[in-house]
Amino acid sequence: EAGVAQSPRYKIIEKRQSVAFWCNPISGHATLYWYQQILGQGPKLLIQFQNNGVVDDSQLPKDRFSAERLKGVDSTLKIQPAKLEDSAVYLCASSLGGLGFSTETQYFGPGTRLLVL
Amino acid sequence: AQKITQTQPGMFVQEKEAVTLDCTYDTSDPSYGLFWYKQPSSGEMIFLIYQGSYDQQNATEGRYSLNFQKARKSANLVISASQLGDSAMYFCAMREGRTNAGKSTFGDGTTLTVKP
């Protein structure tokens, strides 16, 4: 079974530029997560989708970050314009998305390392 | 207030010995799940073990076990017979609520170094 795919793996941009990340979850997984992991910290949830609907985006800086999952499968996360403090690893994860008790684990992709200069 | 606290930024353990990584959590929701993940230097997050708030017994998965003390709100990870490949960052995480839609919160991690 293929894992969570992300691209690109690395990206270097200058501040005020825009950037987009792509994620393809494990086949059949209804729930998709985007996390930001700053060096030396744990992942911070940016947005969580259930199919193509947003479950939680309370920590997404909506003035510059946007995310979509139009067909309920793959997803893109965009930053426009980027700031220096956006330098981080952006992790995508997916889970089966069942309606039962929250026992499901999340499966993570390899992440995209973003450096904003 | 931080919901997941990992007080040990770094830990060292001798190969073949056991080590405990601490995790305390804070929630008012009676339903929650606790997870431990391993993140090697390559960056991928690997699921290790899960404990539900209503589980009566401590979870175990091979060399990993979770010391769950609900009243103290702690969920410490115990790694037995440490191996060199266990050297990595370890994260404790919590999902609140009864469903998969609950928000996940991660601690800031503990770096474990296994010495030969």
The structural class of chain A is mainly beta
Helix count from the secondary structure assignment of chain A: 0
The radius of gyration of chain A is 14 Å
> How far apart lie the N and C ends of chain A?
37 Å
Explain this structure:
- The complex is a heterodimer of chains A (about 120) and B (about 120).
- Chain A has no helices and eleven strands.
- Chain A is mostly beta strands and about 120 residues long.
- In chain A, strands 2, 4, 5, 6, 9, 10 and 11 form a seven-stranded mixed β-sheet that branches.
- The mean pLDDT of chain A is about 90.
- In chain B, strands 2, 5, 6, 10, 11 and 12 form a six-stranded mixed β-sheet that branches.
- The mean pLDDT of chain B is about 95.
- The chains are: A mainly beta (about 120), B mainly beta (about 120).
- Chains A and B meet through strand 4, strand 5, strand 9 and strand 10 of A and strand 5, strand 6, strand 10 and strand 11 of B.
A few lines on this structure:
The complex is a heterodimer of chains A (117) and B (116). Chain A contains no helices and eleven strands.
Q: Which terms summarize this structure?
A:
heterodimer, A: about 120 residues, mainly beta, seven-stranded mixed β-sheet, four-stranded antiparallel β-sheet, B: about 120 residues, about 50% strand, globular
Walk me through the topology:
The complex is a heterodimer of chains A (117) and B (116).
Chain A: E1 5-7, E2 10-13, E3 19-24, E4 31-37, E5 44-50, E6 53-56, E7 65-68, E8 75-79, E9 88-95, E10 107-108, E11 112-116
Parallel strand pairs in A: 2-11
Antiparallel strand pairs in A: 1-3, 3-8, 4-5, 4-9, 5-6, 7-8, 9-10, 9-11
Chain B: E1 4-5, E2 10-14, E3 19-21, E4 24-25, E5 32-39, E6 46-52, E7 60-61, E8 64-69, E9 74-79, E10 88-96, E11 104-106, E12 110-115
